[in-house]
Every structure is written in C-alpha cells, then in structure tokens.
Design goal:
Layout: E1 10-11, E2 18-19, H1 24-42, H2 45-59, H3 61-81, E3 87-88, E4 95-96, H4 98-112, H5 115-126, H6 132-147, H7 160-171
Parallel strand pairs: 1-3
Antiparallel strand pairs: 2-4
Helix pairs in contact: 1-2, 1-3, 1-4, 2-3, 3-6, 4-5, 4-6, 5-7
Amino acid sequence: MANSASNVGHVARSAKIVPLPARAPERLVGVGFRCWLAGLSTGDIKCWEDAWNTFSGILGPEKAKTLLLDLSKFVRAVKANAQRDIEISPAGCRSFCRDECLAISIIAACQHGERQALKASVSALIGSEDIGDTLNGALALAAALRSTNQMLCADSVCPATCALRASRRRMM
C-alpha cells in the first residue's frame, strides 16, 4: 500500500473509544498529536496554535517550546511512514479515537519500557513493520516529556494483543 500524504489526518468517523483524560501527560500527547497532524494535513496555523495553547497552558512557554519540537518530530515521522490513513478526532472533541489512543500508548510504552506493546502499537498506527523512524521520534518525545515530569500512566499502554487486533481489523 502506498503512502498518500493527502490521506493522512482524516477526521475519525468511528465511535470514540476513550474520553479525554484528566491527566495532563495523556492529554498533552493525544491533543498534541491531533492538532499537529491536523496542521500538517491542512496547513491551517490554528491547529498548531491549539497545540501551543494546550502545551503552554499546562507547562508554561519555555517547556512547551521544547516539547512541541519533539512532538513535531514524532508526528512528522508518523505521517512520513504511514502506509494507511491516520484518523484523528475533530478539534475540541472531548474524546480520543483509536489512532490517538495508539499514539498515547506508544509514548506511554516508551516511558515504561513495554517493548512488545510499543512495537505492536507503532506497527498498528502506521500500518507497517518498518517502524524505525517512528520509534525514534516516539522515544525522543517520551524522554522530553519525562524531563518535564510528564509521565504517562502505565495503564495508558495498549497491550500488544490489543494493538495487533486493531491493525488486523483495518486490513480486512
């Protein structure tokens, strides 16, 4: 399957899976992923402003600036390596779709050393076994979040079997 940049960043039409978490680290990753991917897909600066407002509101401007650079690298790697459409919820949505949950799972798995779940989540998100660049971007974002005391909960890691089922459902 060829990567089509115009197909990446589709607004999710499926049922929402997880309500927007109250925990700041998960919210940063999920909303940041959504906003940054939407901005890359549409070129609308408001999307990036929404990411900035979320990050700076939680972390302050200096820490937000650093983290947004790492978020950008992660999202760009996802977009560049995606072999399928990546879905995102509309701006302001109070819940996360499956792909946003996978992005959260990836960063949580990085922070908690859950290698099997990490590889399965990255593969399910991008639709490919060639996960190197995406994995590197995720590791950098996870480390940057850790350096600002933004640790995602271990419960945010999607079990490897869950990520693999999500990947298989899409291929059918």
